[in-house]
Description:
With 459 residues, the chain is an alpha/beta fold. Helix content is 34%, strand content 24%. The strands form three sheets. The chain has a nine-stranded mixed sheet. The chain has a seven-stranded mixed sheet with strand order 1-4-3-2-5-6-7, with helices on both faces. A two-stranded antiparallel sheet has the order 9-10.
Amino acid sequence: MNKFGFLFFAVAVLVGSCTENSEKNEEKNYDVEIMTLDPGHFHASLVQKDMYDQVSPEVYVYAPEGPEVKMHLDLIDQFNNRNDSPTSWTENVYTGDDFFEKMLADKPGNVMVVAGNNKKKTEYILDAVKNDIHVYADKPMVINPQDYELLKEAMEIADEKGLLVYDIMTERFEVTTMLQKRLSKYPEIFGEFEEGSVENPAITKESVHHFSKEVNGKPLIRPAWFFDVEQQGAGIVDVATHLVDLILWSRHSGEVVTIDQVEVKDAEQWSTELTPSQFEKVTGLKEYPDYLNKDIIKDSVLNVYSNGAFVFTVNGVHGKASVIWNFEAPAGSKDTHFSIMRGTKANLVIRQNKETDFQTILFIEPVNDAAKAEIESKLDQIIPEVEKDFSGISYKKVENGWEVVIPSELKVGHEAHFAQVTRKFLEYMENGEVPEWEKQFMLTKYYLTTRAYEMSRSK
Length: 459
């Protein structure tokens, strides 16, 4: 790979004639031209699983040499060559140790997509906006309190320059989560939110992930730095970003929530142990890199501080975010999610476990018999109303209340959510700004995760 200029990367070919596509590209002016920076995480590839009318098919990749950029380009190649709705991306690649400086100097696009090693991510975001580049970033944008201050500066500069900074919150588009939020708006079913407590929060969201998994039908190879909290971030500041965002979004989307309205009440973190053979399976490496030696306590077992839980309040209402990483999911299962919203009439509960055959299912569970009778009399009115926006949903009786029956067409899956978030970002690009409530959500949720990280480390 030439380190001193762009090369057309052979695996990322266009569908049809390159000459014809080049001529078409010259005829059209695109609002968005993507520059992908150091794509060390497969989420960078998933942004390009679909095509978008506003986005140029010419993408510029800047990265250090190595297997990570190759895996990224291999995934794009798979999207370009699939049988069903193939994409038509052209990947122009620069590799070299000065990849970031080279991107800033060349600046062939106007949007930086960044999803990978988080150690310098916030610095990249700050320098990008200083150089008049919009930012579309995978979570987390911040992994420690020092980086939080850089993010605040970046967003201030972005505001002054009319630039967008936005993170990829895919879980807002998961159908059971959307319906849980929607049903909580009906006092006839849900009642009012309980305030909860540290021991029994009003909203709990728990996410269980696995180091060994498949993406796009193939085993996922993770970089070794993924297991270093100084580069990936601890679980309490990584995946917990999604959970905190959902707690805020479920109750306050469209509302400005500042750091003055929230408080971390309790936080803890703990490790997942990986054996050398497990580490090799998910990274392909037979030995640990030197930077992981600090996390090897005894017997060559790597302690990854990927697990964490914390309780916080928003205007006095308690929420809990809990992240757990296991090595590998049981046969027939996958990453799971549990969530409960506690109301004065009913709890809205999402379960994905053995009892649900590892399907994600939303339940309406009355708090007592009187509430059950009242809710039952209202469901025939409310569910058809909700069905106008969620076509085909219905409900059925189960032991503890009702199951919300969701047609398979609405269960599009995690990978498809990236296109949905990207379209929201493109909508904001067209409008020329990220709404104020969205900006404050980013600042508030990263304040919460970094405060929780500090508290968990002090224990």
